Amino acid sequence: MTLPYEGIRVVDFTQVEQGPVGTQVLADFGADVIKVERIDVGDLGRGQNPQINGVSLYYMADNRNKRSLSLDTRKPEAKEIVYQMVKTADVVASNFRPGVMERMGFGYDQLKEINPRIIWSVASGWGQTGPYQGRIGQDLIAQSLGGLMSLTGDRDGPPRAAGTFIADYLGGMMIAQGIMAALAAREKTGRGQVVETNLLDGVIASHLQENAAALNADWKFERAPKGIGHSDSGPFYAIYECKDGKHYTLMGAFVDDVLGRLSRALDIQPPLTDDPRFENPTRWNENSPALRSIMEVAFKKFTRAEVEERFDANGLPPGAVYDLQEVFEDPQVVHNDMVIEADHPVYGKVKLTGFPVKLSDTPANLRRSPPTVGEHNEEVLGELGYTDAQIKDLQASGVTGSENIKRADEATAS
Hints:
The mean pLDDT is 95. By secondary structure, the protein is an alpha/beta fold. α1 packs across α8 (166-189), α6 crosses α9 (199-206) and α8 packs across α9. A hairpin with a 3-residue loop joins β11 (339-344) and β12 (348-353). The relative contact order is 0.13. It has 18 helices and twelve strands. The two termini are 40 Å apart.
């Protein structure tokens, strides 16, 4: 099966999450992503906890379908290996601080002399230029400066961060989007170009609807009242605790006869339809606290499973608040194939998140497990024309890693 990006080669210097997430998207859809890593240590993300079989599960999550080449890029011979790869590559990707790639000898002006068609993708915290250029870029700070944190949390409490590294993930998706757009443009122009993304811009773009209201109507977005899903939403866009202490999300907007359906589903007497205060329940208003109180009592009459069953019977959308273990037991998630299993000869079996984008003719697939450091040294160098003797010399002189030799020796000794 031919995949959409089969034949596209990416020389990948990215680390941790923002960069690897983006290049993994290309790898999933067929690109040959060669991950350039430091000898022995590899990607900084390899050291993160939690770990299984001696490797970070966070690293495993972001690096499937890639090959690993370990180099000491301070050495001229290692730089030459990179330049050899760039000659036939399509993309060079990194997420170091601005200026690092140039100091390494891999800036855009340097590489386009080797290959004018190269697409040079750089991701950072704040941008390649500007007043924050030299600052450390990090997910939590991007959520803060980008406004997302001010929108998150309860009205009577402090701002809160998202429950995951959302700025990094959004940054990765922008990397993939930018590279894909540049590849499409190159089909028309024949030229490569610079693709620049950063955490701050991604976070800002994540709340584009609120931005439009703030910029054009000077709309002030207070954080939502406790248990309510959005700044100006009412009790029908909210989270409720059930009898068993578990929680359920109610999304009543765009549901016909929502007052009647909820009254029947939760056995609310007298029915909500009889109370004129609740004619417009989707927005927070002076009657919202009273409606919220009624709904809190109603939900606590039933367990979460009972609420689920009664909502389904009354044509109301599902809304169980799952922990992550429960997510992957949900029948729709199972049906959507959102869990895949990798089987690595060193790492062993590991379950990973499935592919969220499905193509009918050329779907993404798992072809390679996340690599060990330098796992593909010999393979990649051989493709570049290096002989076995030359590869051994590079390993002996510390230009490339010798991790595979070490693993073979350890296996023999055991």
